[in-house]
Amino acid sequence: MTAVARAFGIVISVRVLLIEDDVKLAERTAEYLRDHGAVVEIVADGDGGLVRAQAGDHDIVLLDLMLPGIDGLAVCKQLRRTSGVPVIMLTARGDEVDRIVGLELGADDYLPKPFSPRELLARMRAVLRRGAATNANATELRVNALAIDRERHVATYADTTLELTAFQFDLLWVLARSAGKVLGREQIYNEVRKLRGDSPASFDPAVDRSVDVHMSKIRAALTGAGPEGATVVRTVRGVGYVMGDEA
User: To which H or E segment does residue 16 belong?
Assistant: First the structure.
């Protein structure tokens, strides 16, 4: 990360998937974003890009419209069936129809080529801020086959209602809200407390055991709802839990 980036506060610590077949543009863009704190993965074709995007390993996807294999519009359409990851479409085609179709398919923003890397960074920050605000105020979440409705206090997996206690329901919500990110047991516990309007609790070894017990109940409910349910929540040894890629 450059000293200039730190000095001006233009740092963006996120995991970026750049799906772009123009090698020089991809490397130049990735270098700029890496200089500003991002971790960038480049994929040069639509089919491979869709696979990586669906894995849930990234915070934002930068998606070229014209790609080998399936094009960017098809990637965006298929990705939106299972993921809410922010998507910014990049394209040399200036046709307004392409822009409108991309946004209607679920892209969060659209940037025509040639673009300034600095403008791209600003667009990324704006999209991520909007996403964070939406998640913070959301009353419904969907992560693939898992759907959670806080207003109705109902969680379903593969259209099967999960039998959960109030604490387990809130715990599942916390994980779904941060799908793809590893959360420690104490962090999970305190996020649940905040949902309930309680102050964060000081560290207590009993918290880890309590979270583990509730997590085992959640896993049992998910497994009972469908054979793939066992893969929704994964343990990260020595750290905590993550709502996994197959959720």
Answer: strand 15-19
Please state, rounded to an integer, the average pLDDT across all residues of the chain: 83
* pLDDT for residue 204: 67
Spatial CA neighbour of 141 closest among 174, 107, 185: 174
Q: 184 in the Ramachandran plot: left (φ > 0), alpha (ψ -120 to 50) or beta? A: beta
Handedness of CA 203, 205, 211, 214 (dihedral sign): negative
Tokens of 150: 């806080």
Please list the helix, strand and coil fractions of the chain in percent, rounded to the nearest 5, in that order: 45, 20, 35
Task: Identify whether the C-beta of residue 187 lies closer than 8 Å to the C-beta of residue 166.
Answer: no
Helix (H, G, I), strand (E, B) or coil at 139: coil
Q: Which whole number is the average pLDDT over 26-32? A: 95
**Position 75 pLDDT exceeds 90:** yes
Percent of the chain residues past pLDDT 90, beyond the cut? 39
pLDDT at 1: 46
Cα 126 to Cα 144: distance, rounded to the nearest angstrom: 25
Domains and CATH numbers, the chain: 3-136 (3.40.50.2300), 140-243 (1.10.10.10)
